[in-house]
Amino acid sequence: GLVVEEYQRTRRMLLAVSGQSRLLEHNPPLARSIRLRNPYVDPLSMIQIELLRRKRGGEESEELNYVLAATISGISAGLRNTG
């Protein structure tokens, strides 16, 4: 899809500009951190996508809002970012 194509194009450009053969080649600690946290953050992202789909479809409930807020907090903690 479009997102995958854009990711591949951006990745190629970053590698060309940085002169690296793989992303984060010159920053192994960050690469390792990302590899370790992705198994936890990725499922939360998928849950969040589904919850947002439901909200956009008109579904409203206290439980949905609570779980959506929990995914936001979990992803933020996993990415070590509050923004």
Instruction: State the end-to-end distance.
Output: 27 Å
Tell me the number of strands: 0
Query: Portion of residues in helices?
Result: over 70%
Give the helix/strand class: mainly alpha
What's the structural blueprint in terms of helices and strands?
Elements: H1 2-18, H2 28-56, H3 62-79
Helix pairs in contact: 2-3
Give a structural overview.
The protein is an all-alpha fold. It has one domain (2-79). 77% of the residues lie in helices and 0% in strands. The chain is built from three helices and no strands. The protein has helices at residues 2-18, 28-56, 62-79. Helix 2 runs antiparallel to helix 3. The longest helix has 29 residues, at 28-56. The mean pLDDT is 94.
Keywords:
83 residues; mainly alpha; 3 helices
Summarize the structure.
By secondary structure, the chain is an all-alpha fold. 77% of the residues lie in helices and 0% in strands.
